[in-house]
Write a structure and sequence with these properties.
This protein is an alpha/beta fold and 297 residues long. It is built from eleven helices and eight strands. The protein folds into two domains: 177 residues, Rossmann fold (3-Layer(aba) Sandwich), CATH 3.40.50.720; 96 residues, N-(1-d-carboxylethyl)-l-norvaline Dehydrogenase, domain 2 (Orthogonal Bundle), CATH 1.10.1040.10. Helix 7 packs across helix 9. It is globular, with a radius of gyration of 19 Å.
């Protein structure tokens, strides 16, 4: 595998996790975000991940110090792609934003670079017309907390070069992931094809006033699951949940999904409550109610 330098586009929660994990595994990594506030947030995330690796994952001080040394940050796209071999895109889960990013990327990126999308619900085929070298483009989707939930879903479009697919698989293995290879395109891949309907059903119940969100999580946890749907949404990020609800609500003319999106916007996004990354979503962090020993009583 010829990958030495990786560019992560999008400095949000998961983009920052991919950047940290990739740098920890020995690759030089440049984090790109269009906004300086995104870069600032990513630096804070990386301090938090350093603490997790030291306290919970057995990393040494030298390993963490070297990981920080392999990371660089920029808001300049041309600078970000300089000398990179591999790109992982984690810009917001919005088709127009992603297409605009790929069009700008195509103007400055070298022809031989492998470009991957970390989209959780959209297909590579949705973006091939915005990519100059579609044969070098595919999806490589990661789960939140990638150092623990270390799956990497590999999904090509019909025009992806088979050698590029193998490069993506090799890269995933090199950063400690287990590649899950799909045979054809599927919105939601494997993970979100299963998880998505559950989260949507949970939002349906709350938006319709059937039950409070804590009761949904309590039901799910008492049934033997370690995390409830609304805990998971806080981890994913409520902006992402909103974008997914809006996209599929519009595409499918699904009034309930659009109502779910409006519920998230009015009650959380408009109040700056985006999930764990803002220390507030459905729950308040760092001491959410579900950590209380009496939460399940």
């Amino acid at each position: 595998m010829g990958v030495k330098k990786v560019m992560i586009a999008g400095a949000g929660t998961l983009g920052s996790q991919i950047a940290w994990q990739t740098a920890f595994k020995g690759f030089e990594v440049v984090v790109y975000d269009a906004f300086e506030k995104g870069i600032e947030a990513s630096r804070i995330f990386h301090q938090q991940y350093a603490s997790i690796f030291l306290k919970s994952l057995g990393a040494s001080e030298d390993q963490v110090r070297n990981t920080h040394a392999r990371l660089s940050y920029t808001t300049d796209l041309k600078e970000a792609v300089s000398s990179v071999d591999f790109i992982s895109e984690s810009v917001p889960e919005n088709q127009e934003i992603k297409r605009a990013f790929y069009k700008e990327l195509s103007k400055v990126v070298a022809d031989e670079v492998v470009i991957t999308s970390n989209s959780s619900t959209l297909l590579p085929s949705d973006f091939v017309s915005a990519v100059d070298k579609p044969e070098r483009f595919l999806a490589l989707h990661f789960a939140n907390m990638i150092w623990t939930f270390n799956v990497a879903e590999v999904m090509t479009h019909p025009g992806t070069d088979s050698k590029v697919k193998e490069e993506a698989i090799a890269f995933a293995k090199a950063i400690g992931m287990v590649p899950i290879v799909l045979n054809k395109e599927q919105n939601g891949y494997v993970l979100n094809s299963i998880l998505g309907p559950m989260l949507t059903a949970a939002l349906d119940l709350v938006e319709q006033g059937v039950v409070d969100f804590q009761e949904v999580d309590r039901t799910w946890m008492i049934s033997g699951n370690p995390r409830g749907p609304f805990m998971i949404m806080d981890m994913i990020g409520l902006e992402t949940m909103y974008n997914v609800m809006m996209h599929w609500g519009e595409v499918q003319n699904d009034k309930q999904k659009l109502a779910n999106a409006e519920y998230l916007k009015t009650n959380y996004l408009d109040k700056g409550k985006l999930g764990i990354k803002t220390k507030g979503g459905f729950y308040d962090y760092p001491n959410p109610a579900f950590k209380d020993p009496e939460f399940l009583l």
